[in-house]
TrEMBL record:
GO terms assigned for molecular function: ATP binding; ATP hydrolysis activity; transmembrane transporter activity
InterPro entries in the cross-refs: AAA+_ATPase, ABC_transporter-like_ATP-bd, ABC_transporter-like_CS, MacB-like_ATP-bd, P-loop_NTPase
Gene3D superfamilies per record: P-loop containing nucleotide triphosphate hydrolases (3.40.50.300)
Keyword Chaperone (UniProt): no
Keywords assigned by UniProt, alphabetized: Amino-acid transport, ATP-binding, Nucleotide-binding, Transport
PANTHER family documented for this protein: ALPHA-D-RIBOSE 1-METHYLPHOSPHONATE 5-TRIPHOSPHATE SYNTHASE SUBUNIT PHNL (PTHR42798:SF7), LIPOPROTEIN-RELEASING SYSTEM ATP-BINDING PROTEIN LOLD (PTHR42798)
SUPFAM superfamilies tied to this protein: P-loop containing nucleoside triphosphate hydrolases
The protein, known as: ABC transporter ATP-binding protein
Pfam family, one: ABC_tran
Residue intervals of the ABC transporter domain: 4-244
Spans traversing the lipid bilayer: none
GO cellular component, one term: membrane protein complex
Family: Belongs to the ABC transporter superfamily.
Length: 252
């Protein structure tokens, strides 16, 4: 069942001075099944963040449409868009985006607080999640008191606590050392095994190897995709790296 459908997505950034503008996305087409874990890879400047920003309703497309569960994102009225984002989507960023003067617990609960959920409902959602993520003992700590890996696990908890339709992650391992990266990817893989749909942008072939399919974008278009199928992780990393190599050779 198609869950996210991206149709002829085009994005042109125009400057106020009326110059020609930058075509960040030319014609992007792909669809994501419910429960898929997709990675998006491509060189710097290829349009990955632009794509993720449109999927997350933070930015709008110049042309084309994104359907989430058959709903065109452009049909969501301005007043409803922040609630939609908070309740239907979960975000994980490279630099965690935790609030420094909130404890981990308050950071994780923030989306539920903003949606005015009852306190006991929040506690019920919180406990199993933080135990699963191994941060139950850190709930009263502030972000600056914990490691990068722990911060990112808190961000994952914040993303999951609303039981979103989709998790959107932009370079989630970008600020982590290799051990914390591996730990985070194992967590995301586990979240995926539990049926969560995930779209992740990454530079890392190793991180991408945890997903079920990798999309490669270049010059604002998807030009290649790889399915993991029943490949062993190392074999999948190999084929992802080869695809990236071919792509960069193709440019010179
Ligand atoms: N807000 C913006 N205004 C103008 N140009 C932008 C903006 N954001 C991105 N771009 C341009 O769009 C292209 C794609 O950028 P981006 O989506 O950030 O790529 P990636 O995440 O793959 O590095 C780049 O040429 C970039 O300079
Ligand atoms: Mg980017």
């Amino acid at each position: 069942m198609t869950f996210i459908d991206v149709k002829h997505l085009k994005k042109v950034y125009t400057s106020k001075l009326g110059s020609k503008g930058t075509e960040a996305l030319k014609d992007v087409n792909f669809s994501v099944e419910k429960g898929e874990f997709i990675s998006v890879m491509g060189e710097s400047g290829s349009g990955k963040t632009t794509l993720l920003n449109i999927l997350s309703t933070l930015d709008s497309a110049t042309e084309g449409e994104v359907y989430l569960d058959d709903q065109p994102l452009s049909s969501i009225k301005d007043k409803k868009v922040s609630r939609f984002r908070r309740e239907q989507l979960g975000f994980i960023f490279q630099d965690f985006n935790l609030l420094d003067n909130f404890t981990l617990k308050d950071n994780i609960l923030l989306p539920l607080v903003l949606s005015r959920k009852a306190v006991d409902e929040m506690e019920t959602a919180l406990q199993p999640l933080v135990e699963r993520l191994g941060i139950a003992h850190l709930l009263n700590n502030y972000p600056y008191e914990v490691s990068g890996g722990q911060k990112q696990r808190a961000a994952v908890a914040r993303a999951l606590i609303t039981q979103p339709k989709v998790i959107l992650a932009d370079e989630p391992t970008g600020a982590l050392d290799s051990k914390s990266s591996q730990n985070l990817m194992e967590i995301l893989s586990d979240v995926h095994q539990n049926g969560q749909t995930i779209v992740m942008v990454t530079h890392s072939a190793r991180a991408a190897s945890y997903s079920s399919r990798v999309l490669f974008i270049r010059d604002g278009q998807v030009y290649h995709e790889l399915y993991r199928g029943d490949k062993e992780p190392d074999a999948f990393i190999d084929s992802i790296s080869k695809s990236l190599l071919v792509s960069s050779k193709g440019r010179v």
